[in-house]
Amino acid sequence: MDKLPITKAGELKISKQLHQLKTKDRVEISQAIADARAHGDLKENAEYHAAKEEQGFIEAKIQEIEHALANAQVIDVKDIPETGRVVFGSTIDLYDIKNEKSLTYKIVGNLESDPSLGLISIQTPIAMGLLGKNEGDEVTISTPSGDISLEIEKVKHL
Fold first, then answer.
1. Residue extent(s) of CATH 1.10.287.180 domains in the chain
2. What's this model's pTM, rounded to 2 decimal places?
3. Which residue, 139, 94, 101, 140, is CA-closest to 120?
4. How many Cα atoms are found within 13 Å in the side-chain-facing hemisphere of 102?
5. pLDDT tens digits, 62-94
6. Contact between residue 6 and residue 74 where contact means Cβ atoms under 8 Å apart
7. DSSP β-ladder status, 119-121 and 91-96
């Protein structure tokens, strides 16, 4: 299996999330299960069943993060010379030609993506359409909501 790219900042954020899940959330849910168990009959104890379900979610999330970190290739974009070319980890200032507005995206790994913060996954159509392009290029990218035309104004390694 190929290693999945992740930014240095993303690795740190996800490692903190894993630590929180293991040291705080896991302990709290174990206590909630113990408290619910103390209330007696488990067959009709909604608190117990809800806590067990939550425990399953937490354990699945821990496994997902551990697997992702084990299969991650950490890339620090600051170590890559700035050439104006879009690479993984780049922060790109764009101009949406049709809507006449400026946008800024940073291309990141799947687990760290958060479009509301301008962090887009390397596997999105927009990121794939921008990779390898240069400052000044105009690109038209097919997305699920239709084609978009973007001009790459600035590529930064932050």
1. 4-74
2. 0.80
3. 94
4. 5
5. 999 999 899 999 999 999 999 999 999 999 999
6. yes
7. unpaired
Residue that is written with structure tokens 């705080």 in the block: 24
What angle is formed at CA 71 by the lines to CA 18 and CA 110, rounded to 5 degrees? Answer: 70
Residues whose CB is less than 8 angstroms from the CB of residue 52 and which lie 6 or more positions away in sequence, other chains included: 33
Gap between the Cα atoms of 91 and 154, Å rounded: 8
Q: Please provide residue 74's backbone torsions phi and psi, each rounded to the nearest 5 degrees.
A: -80, 125
Collapsing DSSP to helix, strand or coil, 6 comes out as strand
Domain 4-74 top-level CATH class: mainly alpha
Q: Are 113 and 119 in contact (CB under 8 A)?
A: yes
Q: Is 128 helix (H, G, I), strand (E, B) or coil?
A: helix
The amino acid at 73: Q
pLDDT digit string, tens, across residues 95-117? 999 999 999 999 999 889 999 99
Which residues, other chains included, contact 25 with Cβ-Cβ below 8 Å and sequence gap of 6+? 58
Stretch(es) of the chain classified as CATH 3.10.50.30 = 77-156
Domain 77-156 in CATH 3.40.640.10? The answer is no
Compute the distance between CA of residue 109 and CA of residue 10 in angstroms, rounded to an integer: 8
